Amino acid sequence: MTSRTPRPRERGIPEATVARLPLYLRALHGLSERGTPTVSSEELASVAGVNSAKLRKDLSHLGSYGTRGVGYDVEYLIYQISRELGLTQDWSVAIIGAGNLGRALADYGGFGTRGFRIAALLDADPKTVGREVAGLSVRHIDELEDVVSDEKVSIGVIATPAAAAQGVCDRCVGAGVGSILNFAPVVLNVPEHVDVRKVDLSIELQILAFHEQRKAVGRRGPGWADALEV
């Protein structure tokens, strides 16, 4: 039996805390790049965009409490959070769907510096297969299972049209992929042991549109809002 790194929730860390750890890590990397050796909880919370009391509670789950009057050691906290998130090892990633989004994801340089290796980019379009993107030759979707096995892919990124997403997801799961990042505008059905994170840019834009409309109502008064409902 092979061992694996315990998931944060198995170590008693709440899911809400897990969701905020990447925010703290991003803020800490920014501080590190500026040569900041230590940071107070208030300063780190401000940079990360969260409440300082919530930040202190979150970090206490890692056993990190900082030093009174000094704060947190930036480099050590980066290590602690990276270790908890499993980023002290490299994770092999396959992107399925070599359209505009898939190519942009493959070309993003930030993955490699955060512990993720883009092992393959796959597509079903014969006109796309064989093209080079970010140093990778686009492979045919028929090679998915071989890619997962040969490259030891842990995470699959689905950037296909909605109609193809579930089928691609099923094949990823069947090949042994344990986590899916889904950019397709559809809800995926997966076994309980598989983790899925969904990124729907259109939903995020709709939420922003809601807030923009409310701000416009506030500027123009209730009469304008009533007109919208007619």
Provide structural commentary.
The chain has 230 residues and is an alpha/beta fold. It has three domains: 8-85, Winged helix-like DNA-binding domain superfamily/Winged helix DNA-binding domain (Arc Repressor Mutant, subunit A, Orthogonal Bundle); 91-199, 3-Layer(aba) Sandwich (Rossmann fold); 203-230, no CATH class. The protein is built from nine helices and ten strands. It has helices at 15-33, 41-48, 52-60, 74-85, 100-107, 144-151, 162-175, 201-220, 222-228, and strands spanning 38-39, 72-73, 91-96, 116-123, 132-133, 136-137, 139-140, 155-158, 179-182, 195-198. It has a six-stranded parallel sheet, with helices on both faces. A two-stranded antiparallel sheet has the order 1-2. Helix 1 packs antiparallel against helix 4 (74-85) and helix 6 crosses helix 7 (162-175). The radius of gyration is 21 Å and the shape is globular. Mean pLDDT is 88; it is low at 1-10. It comes from Actinorugispora endophytica. One of its GO terms (cellular component) is cytoplasm. Residues 23-62 bind DNA. Residues 86-187 form the CoA-binding domain.
Q: Could you provide a short overview of the structure?
A:
Helices cover 46% and strands 16% of the residues. The protein is an alpha/beta fold and 230 residues long.
